[in-house]
UniProtKB/TrEMBL annotation:
Protein species of origin: Novosphingobium ovatum
A molecular function (GO) term: protein histidine kinase activity
NCBIfam families: PEP_his_kin
Protein EC: 2.7.13.3
Transport keyword on record: no
Protein name: histidine kinase
Length: 704
């Protein structure tokens, strides 16, 4: 015995011992649960027990020995007993008259194999030579295995939906053993010798047989299903085709070597070259892959689509998470095209007149689309009933019910690549339509295609509608921002106009007074500066203060109160000198507006106080009046809301603008008020000495 033979003998003994141990352990574990198999439990336990006995006999005597063949026959009889009992579990043995005779015939075959060997070896050894006996036994074994596989297939295929839950695991275990033995006997018959290497791993198959039955015996496992993904199935089927192709090449090449005579070598070489060229041209083509996918889906799956995979792919495509993702409209076309393996598509959307125009194209640059792709009236007929329009059917005059009267534009009818039109409907409104190009492997769409395309089209329509709403909101926000800026400008111009009107009235009475003229020049100069800053601020509203500088608040407060003294008693109480980091004109505007509001809310003889104090790191400016005050609800919901005013002819943006300007200088504006008692506005602006600290904190918050 060579070293390789010894190694394989050791592997065979080890695998069969493992098989015996596994079968014995599982038989003992499911003995108490044998009732779960509806009368077949005892037969299954017997099958496991005889599997263990057969593994031990093979380990001691060998698989081809008379003892090994006898143990194999007894094992197969218990397998057939288990299959028959599973047929009887739901009464099918009484309805299927062929089950009993088939089981009996297979049992006879399993008895004949060891019986013939016994007769020949013990009674008349000269009746057949060893080769003839070997081949006859293999033929009987092949006949028994093939019949058993057919029987177990019918057992599972003809079972009810409820019965399959119980039969799944035993049928899988028996099928695994018999498929392995079918290959084993086939190789042994064709090679004219016993394949010791393949037979050595039979014990591993017996271990798997026991494990599968153990899984089926666990409570709740009857609902566990082995369902390979479509990707794995397509790849497996592709590998099977490649393997069959290679096997066919080898078989034909061998046949040519025998039948070709003197030209055998040339015929073999020509065949191999031709077959290789055919494979290189057909296997990589999209048409071939499409045909393969359609064939596998049609014959191996209950549904054409793996809806989970389709939904994940659709969501990923339409979501466009990567930075290199195409625009939404192109992604919408691709999301629908991938469902049917369409290579290209168009998206048509309505314009302001209701006509549908080209909004996006995906991988379809050659098609010429007119300015008005589909008229509004034609699209109404297309979208009626939410039908998917098959253009080939319309061209041939065999349109589906509901689509016969659809009037398509001429360019779409004449374009040979145009395949289907999918209307995109959201809330009973047509958001657009997608035209898909014909795939490489074209086929007729069925109800499953229509349902999936219809649902996906509705989802795409929802995305497009939400995107249109977002675009409209952005545009409205831009107009709102523009209107807000104009309102600010009108408010400031109104204040300047009031100053000019007051200046003109005073000039009529005091034009000859040199002091008045000097004061008038100062006022005009300040007004001109304010107008210049107003123009500069037009591009700044909503973006903050453009330039921050040290500002001494006491000087600003005194200048402003001096301007108000002629009309009202305004007093400045400067407890601490404060220099803040801000913008002078913005601070003037804030204080001026708040003081004016306090004057308007107060009686003529009630003073208004401007209190300035250092509250490190802030400077606190308080503007206090004893006017009519405001309610908490008014402060919370209306005071700082733009375009809401209690004054006749007011714009209602003064308080809002004051708060925004204070925030732009990293400050804060608060208000305290009680009806009938008065109001306190509190402005907090950062001191110049604390500017760097506050800026650092603010930047840190933005980064976070």
């Amino acid at each position: 015995m060579t070293l390789a033979d010894a190694w394989w003998a050791w592997v065979g003994n080890a695998s069969h011992v493992a098989g015996a141990c596994a079968a014995t352990a599982v038989a003992a574990s499911i003995w108490s649960q044998r009732g779960r198999y509806s009368g077949a439990g005892l037969a299954i336990v017997a099958s496991l027990a005889m599997t263990a006995v057969w593994c031990l006999v093979v380990t001691v005597k060998g698989q081809l020995s008379l003892a090994g063949q006898g143990a194999m026959g007894l094992r197969n009889l218990t397998y057939l007993w288990a299959v028959y009992r599973m047929f009887a579990s739901d009464g099918r043995h009484t309805r299927v008259a062929q089950v009993g005779p088939v089981v009996a015939a297979l049992a006879l075959v399993d008895i004949l194999v060891p019986a013939v060997q016994l007769v020949v070896s013990r009674i008349a050894p000269a009746m057949l030579n060893a080769e003839a006996l070997y081949r006859m036994n293999l033929m009987l074994a092949l006949l028994g295995v093939i019949g058993s596989l057919v029987l177990v297939h019918n057992l599972y295929a003809s079972a009810s939906r409820e019965g399959r839950a119980m039969l799944r695991w035993p049928a899988m275990a028996l099928g695994l053993v018999w498929v392995f033995e079918l290959n084993l006997y086939t190789v042994a018959y064709l090679s004219h010798e016993w394949p010791r290497q393949l037979a050595a791993v039979h014990g591993v198959v017996d271990v798997a047989f026991a494990i599968i039955l153990a899984l089926g015996s666990v409570k709740g496992r009857e609902t566990l299903r082995l369902s390979p993904s479509r990707s794995v199935t397509f790849q497996s089927f592709s590998l099977l085709m490649i393997g069959g192709y290679l096997a066919g090449m080898v078989a034909v090449a061998n046949w040519l070597s025998y039948a070709g005579g003197d030209y055998a070598r040339w015929l073999q070489l020509s065949f191999v070259i031709g077959a290789t060229v055919v494979a290189a041209l057909t296997l990589p083509s999209r048409r071939m892959r499409g045909w393969l996918r359609v064939t596998v889906t049609k014959h191996l799956f209950q549904h054409r689509y793996d809806y989970r995979a389709e939904w994940l792919r659709f969501t990923e495509t339409i979501g466009g998470r990567s930075k290199e993702a195409a625009p939404l409209h192109e992604r919408a076309v691709r999301a629908l095209a991938d469902i049917t393996d369409s290579p290209a598509g168009l998206l048509l959307m309505p314009d302001e007149h209701g006509d549908f125009v080209l909004a996006a194209r995906w991988q379809w640059l050659t098609i010429e689309v007119p300015a008005c792709a589909i008229a509004a009236g034609q699209m109404v007929s297309i979208s009626r009933g939410d039908f998917i329009v098959e253009l080939d059917e319309l061209r041939a005059g065999h349109a589906a019910p509901g689509t016969a009267g659809i009037g398509l534009p001429q360019w779409l009818r004449e374009e040979a690549r145009a395949w289907v039109v999918i209307p995109l409907i959201h809330n009973e409104r047509v958001q657009g339509a997608v035209v898909l190009a014909r795939p490489e492997h074209s086929r007729k769409l069925d109800w499953e295609d229509f349902d999936l395309l219809r649902v996906a089209g509705q989802q795409v329509a929802t995305y497009l509608a939400e995107n249109a709403s977002q675009v409209a909101l952005v545009e409205a926000s831009r107009f709102d921002d523009f209107h807000r800026r104009i309102a600010f400008v009108m408010h400031d111009i109104k204040n300047l106009a009031s100053q000019f009107a007051l200046l003109a009235r005073n000039a009529e009475r005091h034009a000859e007074n040199p002091a008045f003229r000097a004061d008038m020049l100062v006022t005009l100069r300040n007004s001109a500066d304010k107008l210049n800053h107003l123009v500069a601020r037009l591009s700044r509203y909503g973006g903050g203060v453009d330039r921050v500088e040290p500002v001494e608040l006491g000087a600003i407060a005194r200048e402003l109160t001096a301007a108000f003294q002629a009309r009202h008693n305004v007093q400045v109480i400067e407890r601490d000198p404060c220099t803040v980091a801000g913008q002078r004109h913005a601070i003037e505007q804030v204080i001026q507006h708040l003081v004016q509001n306090s004057i308007d809310a107060s009686t003529p003889d009630a003073p208004v106080f401007v209190h300035i104090a250092n509250d490190d790191p802030w400077c606190r400016i308080e503007i206090v009046d004893s006017g009519h005050g405001m309610s908490p609800d008014f402060i919370r919901t209306r005071l700082f809301k733009p375009f809401v005013s209690t004054k006749a002819g007011g714009f209602g943006i003064g308080a809002y603008e004051a708060r925004e300007l204070v925030r732009a200088m990293h400050g804060r504006l608060d208000v305290e008020s009680r009806e009938g008692l008065g109001t306190r506005f509190i402005i907090r602006l950062p001191l110049q000495s604390a500017r760097n600290v506050l800026t650092t904190l603010d930047n840190g918050q933005k980064v976070a």
